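Below sits the subject:

***
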Amino acid sequence: LPLYTWFFETDIRINYNNSWSMFHDVKLRKISIMSMEVTRCKETTKQEVSHREMESTLFELDSTLSNEFENTYLQHEAGLGYRYNKDKIRIYSSFDYEISILDSDRLFPGFENTKRTFKNFVPRMVFIYDMNENTNIRLYYRGDTDAPSVRQLQDVIDNSNPIQISTGNPDLEQEYEHRLYTRIRTVDPETPKSFFMYMGGRIRNNYLGNATYIAARDTLIQGDVLLRQGGQLNRPENLDKYWDIRSYFSFGFPLKFIKSNLNLSARANISNLSSFGQGSMPSGGEY
């Protein structure tokens, strides 16, 4: 077994953000006709692991644990927007069509290209109602996407902790999130009394989570790296059925007998996260 291990890791991230937008306002309705945005993100990461045998004075590169990876994420977005502002009501909305191109290259060991295209409709909307000068109601919805990072896409093995090995997953898909929340706020400056309520939730499809596998016996990972019985392998996976709900309430009122204000508040959060946690690895001795 090697006596000494030399570990070298480099991360380079270059972001190119080029955007172009065009708006046209119609005086009667104030409609935003078109907007367009192009975003380019390029990430490069390099990991080198070398070993030196007890009898040797030279380090040798371990190709099983070394990796060089380049990831380019190009996103195009175009759509229509609508704005309305009259009396007590304000509406801001957009309906965009998004094309995202994920181009991943493994440069070492051995070249391998993975290219995927994701197409999504991404709506957004803000509704504001000023009931009176003291009370305001806001409703907000947003759709959004998130691409896997270069670190999550790398299939290189990290065995710096021999009983808890981790690796990436080049087959990861893009994540899509729906987010909705409402907020009510009222303040009476004469009393003074105040009330604030927030409630919101989100659903994430293809959530970028992690799977944990436990080795039922000594197992070779990718045919070369040994994981002992009871050891864990962590690997990013796309998960479904992720959702969470958050709420917050606050009520304030004066206490005249001590000439002060009292604020009462409460919050509640609940979430659901699917996972592969604590799954068993194949019993054939290889993974």
Notes: Helices lie at 150-153.
